[in-house]
Every structure is written in C-alpha cells, then in structure tokens.
Protein 1
Amino acid sequence: MTNIGKFNVFYSMKKITSLLLVFYLFSFSCSVFAQEYKSHIIAKGETVESIAKSYNVSKSALLEANPALEKYTYVGMKIRIPLVEKNEVETMQKEKINEVEASSEQLYLADSKAERTVPPINTNINNSSGPSNVLIDEIRYGFLSSDAMSMFFSMGNNHFFDNSLYLGTQIGYGTSFAHTKIYGSTLTTTSHYIILPIELGYYLWFSEERFTAIVPYAGADITYLAKATMEYDNEKETIKPDKRFDIMAKVGLKISFGFFLDFGYAFNDNGEYFYAGFGYSF
C-alpha cells in the first residue's frame, strides 16, 4: 500500500473516531441534564396539589411531566414525579413568595377599608373627649321692674374641663333705663357700664351626640359704671354715682342646641332682677 493510501485510511479512521467522540460527549451531556422521574400511583383522596406538596415539587412541574393530569385523574393512575432540581426549588420559592405577597396585599386592603370606615374626629366641643375652648356671644335683657330694664351684649370664652363641666368668662357692654314719675313728669335715669360675667356650669346632654343639653350654672356679674345721666323735663345732666364697681351673684339655666336660650336671676344687697337672653357658641 502506498504512502498516500495509508494516509487516506489513517485520515478516515481519525475522522470517524472524532465523530464518535463528539456523539459520546453529546449523549453524556443529555443524560446528565435530562430530567429524572420516579413513579407514583394515585390513591383515593389524592389531588394534584396534595401530590405535588407531598413530593415537594411545584404543581406546574407535575403537570408538565404528566399533561394528562390537566384533563383527568383516577385512583390507580400511574404518574411521573420529577425530581426536584434547582430550577424547581426556585419555582416553588417564587410561588410561596407570590402567596405571601397576595396575603399581605389582602391584609393591606382590609386595613385600608377598615381605616376608611373609621369616623373622623370631630373637634366640636359637643363631640370632643378632652378639654377645649368655645367662643360664645350673647345678648341679655334684664327686668328690674315694670319701669326699669337693662340690656347688654357680651362675648367670651367657655373653657371645658371635660365634655360637660366648663368655666365661662366674658366681657361686654350694657345699658339700663329707669323711669320714675315725679309730680306728673317722668324722671329717666340712664346708665352705661362695662360688664364681666363669670359662670361655672355643667352640660346635661340629652344624647350621645352631645348636641342638645340643659345647662345649670352659677356665677357673678362684675360691672363698672362708666357713665350715668338723668333727664327731667327735657333737662339732662350727668350723675356722679356713689360707686363705680358692683358685683351681683347669679344663678341660671340654659337650653343649648347650637344656639342657646338663657334664663336667670341676679341679686345683691342693693336689689335683684330677672333676665332672659340668647346666644351662639362657635
């Protein structure tokens, strides 16, 4: 055999050997990376989910290995159980994470719904649970007798110690008129004064909404006489009073419903009078 013939035979054998080696390596790789399975016979009461859980594999992997499970199952059915690999573990972990996230989202939605159903806090004193201040104004008419009356307007603040007990302080302006018959003529006395009403009261609420209440109270009216005049037979002159300051004790009852009606009795050593008024809290 010539050298050329020997070379061709040698080259052909080498080529065949190389092809066999490549095929062997390919077959080996396929066998290494191929999915391995074990068998399982479906028993009574078992489901796809329970089988997947018992073998610690994902439901999707079990259905991929047994497509028929998507259509039907029966007792005695033989199926393949894929062995758990890294990618299967990751799939199961992702499924668990998704379940946890779904549960967390449901809890969040439930909390949000509950939060939306909680009524907002009302800062009005009628519904407040703690101390607060309420501004008030009032117009009061006093009746000393059939020939004498007084009227004043005041504004102030009621400080509530709780939902019911309060201390009220106000400041206002008042005037009074008195008419006296003397020898057929009328003597009219007019007084202008600054008044400082102080009272301690208690709201007796009719309902839990704290809107309507009866309010008994007691206190005092401190007055400063700024000016007094006397008019008789069309002649008017200023009177210099014996004293500028005066204090009258008072007791009263209010009916409160946003607006309030005020009825009371004031007295001291010099006299007494009944009064009625109305006002508004805001």
Protein 2
Amino acid sequence: MTQYPDLELYIAGQWKKAAGQPVLNPADESVLGTVPTATQSDLDAALAAAADGFKTWSKTSPAKRAEVILKAVALMRERVEEMAVAMTLEQGKPIAQSRLEILRGCEIIEWDASEGRRTYGRIIPSEPGMKHMVLRQPIGVVAAFSPWNFPMSSPARKVGGALSAGCSIIIKASEETPAGAVQLVRAFHDAGLPRGVLNLVFGKPAEISEYLIPQDLI
C-alpha cells in the first residue's frame, strides 16, 4: 500500500519539519503521522515569502502562469492513486470517493487556469475626448483557510483561483486531514512554481487566522 506522506510546512519554496499533533486513522485510531504547528516566526516567514512571491508571480504572463499551474495538475493526475490512499487513511471515505475528489480538484484548478487567461478589462462609454478603461490586476497576498471534510478539493478551489489571478497565497489547511494539501503543494513545487508564491501552514485555526487576517499584506 502507498505510504502516508511526510507532513511538513512549506514556506518560501522549502519544506520544514516541526513539532505538532498526531493525525489519526479513524478506522483504528492508529497514528498516521504528525502534522506540524507553525510558530509566529513561521507565519512571519510565510508573509515575507508571499510578498516576494507576489512581485514575481503578478508580473508573470497569464499564459505562463497557466502553463505552470496545468503542469502541477498533470502531476496530481499521475499521482491520484497515492493521494487517494492517503485521503482514505486519514478521513475514512471510500477510496473511490477519494479518487473522485482529487480528480474534481484537478478540474477546478484547470478551469481556473483557463479563466486566468481571460481576465479581460473593458472600455466604458464616457464624455467626448475621454476614455474610461478598466484593467483587472492581481490584488496581492491571499490568506486562505480550508476545512477537513474535502481535504483536496477545498484547498484546490482556493489555490487555483488565487494563483490563476496572479496572487500569491498562504493556505492554512486542516490539521485533521492534512495530506491532500501537502500533496497538492508538492505538485506545484515539482511543477516549478516560483518560491514564495504558494505557502502552506498548519496550527491552531483561531490563532493563525487572528494573526494573518489583520496583516497589512493580506
């Protein structure tokens, strides 16, 4: 059987081990792994990395962004079986449903990547001699939070939309079901996403949200 993945934080293009809490198999309450807890220092590092990543990613053309994103999706499709096994181990859903969720997450990201090529502006009618033009541009660093019940497709919705729009992102995924987010991020890492554009943290949800959301960068 495919092994449960190592669980690590992902900050500034680097994987980082840290102490944390056990992830349990609901079928027999065996320990699958340890999900790391991000410190405030880790969160500050993720914020700084995301700010730097945004400078690069926001200036990358929509076509190039889509190329990297779709490469990551192709890797996830290749790895669907190992991702499905990990999801079933930590969550208990039937393996067939795990496969379908992963494939659905891939479809969501693919759709977002395609839409990222069509972030059209518009020309608004105005007075003679004047032209009103609207441009759609990336807004900045995104802080995203995903629940335990759809551990791959929920992160996929958030990551796909942010990256396709040209934003960088810090995602705080579920501590109960972390493997989907780790494997999703690993696919983007292996696809060559620039460092800092995507960052992954875990920890106490209230503490992380209370710290990240008020930040000026977010």
